[in-house]
């Protein structure tokens, strides 16, 4: 009996062992790994396709900014091969534009009277021609009367006295001295009358511009009373200007070597080169007054039409030239948190951002003292566009977020 029970238990144990081995083989060793491998492969394949669609393969090496040539052209990006060249030593200072000597003339009243401008549109900055009437002066309604009429009356009386004295002196009725006095009075009255008569019009005594130019300053207003000789306006020809640069006293040794300058008028983005304006060094201070911090350096130049006398300016004073200097245009530089960068083209469609250290600037180009080497291709125009492209490339595509 015991032997029969033992035999049945052994058979049951063998049966259970066979079922467990079969189930573990089907699910643990084959089904589960096969499923996991399939899922991983599918995920990897999807991620790769997303990268290709996003253009990730075009970037090549890390840090490169991809910008297709046609995109660069459309954005106005320009590239220049960096080569050493002569570069003038420079000093950046403040300055002011001044009217040239002899270029301004004051218009004075030619008679007493009330001012009435010939044209109500005359204002500071109005162009005028030589001999153009600026205003009329009238004293007809004043107590002193019209200046032309008074001068004519004085002239007629002096002429009558002179003609009578001329007859009397011939007959030896009056002394020679009295005749000379009568002649002098006549000449004086004639000069006074002719002086006002040549400006006389039906509207009053005309005041004319002495030369062609621009009205720089109006010194009176419509309806003001003026006396003969009183300044009415200042007319400037504005053809030659002066540029005064304020040189710090600790840089006086630079003055004898100065040969030119570049400048930018306050409120303007345009850089002017003195060499393009027939400019030259006019003079510079050779002594320092007590307590003075600056010495004036004065240039003379042609006015190109958009330069305003009296305006302040940013000036780059140019001195001796230095050979074999690496320099880039000012527009090639970008700045972040006080650090300066340029963009270097490493492939026709790829750029990298490079930190650089700078030296002197002439307002047009900047000396590079570290960070670049000759032969590299530098973005000289449109650096901001390349920077924007790098910022947009740093933002991940929606296809990558799963």
Summarize the structure in short.
29% of the residues lie in helices and 36% in strands. With 402 residues, it is an alpha+beta fold. The chain starts with a helix and ends in a 9-residue tail after the last helix.
Characterise this structure:
The protein has five helices and 24 strands. The chain is α+β, with helices and mostly antiparallel strands and 402 residues long. Strands 1, 2, 19, 20, 21, 22, 23 and 24 form an eight-stranded antiparallel sheet that branches. Strands 15-14-18-3-13-17-16 form a seven-stranded antiparallel sheet, with no helix packed on it. Strands 8-9-7-5-11 form a five-stranded antiparallel sheet, with no helix packed on it. Helix 3 (147-170) packs antiparallel against helix 4 (176-197). The protein is elongated and about 110 Å long. The two termini are 68 Å apart.
Structural features:
alpha+beta; single chain; seven-stranded antiparallel beta sheet; 402 residues; elongated; eight-stranded antiparallel beta sheet
Distance between the termini: 68 Å
Q: What is the number of helices?
A: 5
The main pleated sheet reads as: 8 strands, antiparallel
Unreliable stretches, pLDDT < 50, 5 or more residues? Answer: 1-8, 11-61, 395-402
Bin the strand percentage. Answer: 35-45%
Helix content: 25-40%
Structural category is alpha+beta
Based on DSSP secondary structure assignment, what is the total number of beta strands? 24
């Amino acid at each position: 009996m015991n032997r029969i029970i033992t035999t049945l238990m052994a058979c049951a144990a063998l049966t259970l062992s066979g079922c467990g081995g079969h189930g573990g083989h089907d699910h643990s060793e084959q089904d589960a790994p096969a499923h996991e491998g399939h899922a991983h492969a599918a995920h990897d394949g999807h991620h790769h396709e997303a990268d290709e669609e996003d253009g990730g393969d075009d970037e090549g090496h890390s840090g490169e900014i991809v910008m297709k040539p046609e995109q660069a052209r459309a954005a106005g990006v320009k590239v220049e091969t960096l080569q050493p060249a002569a570069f003038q030593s420079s000093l950046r200072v403040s300055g002011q534009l001044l009217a040239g000597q002899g270029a301004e003339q004051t218009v004075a009243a030619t008679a007493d009277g009330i001012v009435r401008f010939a044209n109500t549109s005359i204002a500071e900055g109005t162009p005028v021609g030589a001999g153009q009437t600026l205003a009329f002066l009238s004293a007809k309604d004043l107590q002193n009367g019209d200046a032309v009429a008074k001068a004519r009356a004085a002239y007629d009386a002096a002429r009558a006295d002179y003609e009578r004295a001329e007859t009397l002196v011939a007959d030896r009725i009056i002394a020679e001295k009295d005749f000379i006095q009568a002649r002098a009075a006549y000449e004086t009255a004639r000069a006074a009358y002719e002086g006002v008569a040549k400006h006389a019009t039906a509207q009053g005594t005309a005041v004319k511009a002495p030369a062609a130019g621009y009205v720089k300053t109006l010194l009176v207003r419509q309806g003001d009373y003026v006396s003969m000789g009183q300044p009415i306006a200042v007319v400037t020809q504005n053809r030659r200007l002066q540029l005064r640069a304020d040189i710090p006293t600790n840089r006086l040794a630079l003055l004898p070597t100065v040969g030119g300058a570049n400048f930018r008028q306050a409120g303007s983005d345009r850089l002017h080169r003195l060499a393009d304006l027939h400019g030259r060094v006019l003079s510079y201070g050779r002594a320092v007054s007590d307590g003075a911090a600056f010495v004036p350096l004065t240039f003379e130049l042609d006015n190109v039409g958009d330069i305003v006398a009296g305006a302040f300016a940013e000036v780059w004073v140019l001195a001796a030239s230095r050979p074999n200097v690496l320099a880039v245009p000012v527009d090639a530089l970008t700045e972040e948190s006080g650090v300066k960068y340029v963009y270097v083209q490493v492939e026709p469609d790829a750029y990298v951002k490079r930190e650089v250290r700078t030296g002197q600037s002439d307002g047009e180009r900047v000396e590079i003292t570290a960070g670049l080497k000759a032969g590299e291709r530098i973005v000289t125009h449109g650096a901001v566009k390349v920077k924007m492209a790098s910022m947009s490339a740093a933002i991940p595509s929606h296809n990558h977020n799963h």
